[in-house]
Design a protein that fits this description.
Dihydrodipicolinate Reductase, domain 2, Rossmann fold, binds NADP nicotinamide-adenine-dinucleotide phosphate, 12 helices, seven-stranded mixed sheet
Length: about 350
């Protein structure tokens, strides 16, 4: 009997975790936490879960939780102070937010100020299974990667063995995300009349995922990278498409670099280097896949990589379930094998 609690279950990532967990063959009990909806039936609010999750939202102290595993799908808050006691009870935890993703207490406090990170910094493991599978399977506390970061790290990590011939000082990336990336809270920026028929760039000079991707890729490349990142939000609900440009005058076999690095990864689909075939959002929405294509533009000495993910799944809840599967000794892809939609 394995029981899992989801903090922030009323939000987009929390509810997506519930949707995956109700079909997970090893999970017998799901506890859905919400401060605002405590006492309300989960399926009366998340109506797509009717007949699958007939429990009520509860609101309780994390330290009082009786569960084998906890997901925290909430922004930094008081819950951080409870995590050491939760871990001491033998409960493993995946945090979905940005705090703890950069394993440096000073940088972490600068980007995500306000809560003491010192007690957890030593043991936190960055939860991207394609890079850190070994460490994740032994970890008690995971910081799950950001949605943009996931799509960009998976696109750039395969070239780390070529670091000497790439211009790592000028990597230019833009991404377009569905509006679910901003969470369930309403805002003027994302209000339907503002977003309908629109494409909106935001945080064009500094987004807080940029230091995260530079930090993790810096470890892979064993040197500093300088990534100029521009996000935009599109007029659709879910999915991220990232456009990655980097420069080199040395042409090499991109397909070989990608298939060697990601070879054997079930959730990474390298679709090739022929410009007639490109990753796109529709193929990955509602799945845990990251589709990658990599192309060489000899005229401009440019490597161009496209990366497509579902921000709520591979960019969040799906990777988090991969992490849970590894931490609890289950098959890594359990609960995550759904394919995309067509048309
Ligand atoms: N959306 C994405 O694409 C995405 C992708 C990757 C990672 N993430 C990260 O995942 C986390 C959740 O994102 P989201 O998009 O699901 O946000 P969301 O839709 O705003 O949901 C967050 C939920 O957390 C609860 N909450 C807020 N403050 C809390 C606190 N101090 N303590 C306990 N619960 C609290 C709220 O529910 P109640 O008020 O009902 O308790 C809220 O519904 C964030 O850290 C986000 O950065 C999001």
């Amino acid at each position: 009997m394995t029981s899992v609690a989801v903090v922030g279950a009323s939000g987009y990532i929390g509810s997506e975790l519930l949707r995956i967990l109700v079909n997970h063959p090893k999970i017998d009990k799901i506890i859905a936490l919400s401060r605002s909806l405590a006492g309300k039936k989960v399926s009366s609010y998340l109506t797509h879960l009717r007949g699958f999750l007939d429990v009520e939202f509860i609101n309780t102290d994390l330290e009082k939780l009786d569960a084998d595993f906890v997901y925290v799908a909430a922004p930094p808050g008081e819950w951080i102070n409870s995590i050491p006691a939760v871990l001491d009870k033998g409960i493993r935890v995946v945090s979905m937010g940005g705090k703890f993703r950069i394993k440096d207490p000073l940088i972490d406090s600068k980007i995500y100020p306000g809560f003491d990170n010192t007690r957890l910094m030593d043991e936190v493991v960055y939860g991207l299974p394609e890079l850190y599978r070994e460490q994740i399977s032994k970890a008690r506390f995971i910081a799950n990667p950001g949605c943009y970061t996931t799509s960009i790290i998976l696109a750039l990590a395969p070239l780390s063995s070529q670091s000497k011939i790439l211009d790592l000082d000028k990597i230019v990336v833009s991404s377009v995300s569905g509006s679910s990336g901003a969470g369930a809270g309403p805002s003027r920026f994302l209000h339907h009349p503002e977003m309908s028929s629109n494409l909106r760039p935001y945080k064009v000079l500094e987004h807080r995922h940029t230091p995260e991707m530079e930090h993790i890729l810096g470890r892979e490349y064993k040197t500093n990278l300088n990534i100029s990142f521009t996000p935009s939000v599109g007029n659709y609900s879910r999915g991220i498409l990232s456009y990655v440009n980097l420069f080199t005058s040395h042409e090499f076999d991109l397909a070989q670099a990608f298939t060697e690095y990601h070879g054997g990864e079930f959730f990474i689909r390298f679709i090739g280097s022929d410009e007639k075939t490109t990753p796109n959002i529709k193929d990955v929405v509602n799945t845990n896949f990251c589709d990658l294509g990599a192309y060489y533009d000899g005229t401009r000495k440019r490597i161009f990589i496209l990366s497509a993910t579902d921000n709520l799944i591979k960019g969040g809840s799906g990777t988090a379930v991969q992490n849970m599967n590894l931490m609890l000794g289950f098959d890594e892809s359990l609960g995550l094998e759904s394919v995309g939609l067509s048309p």
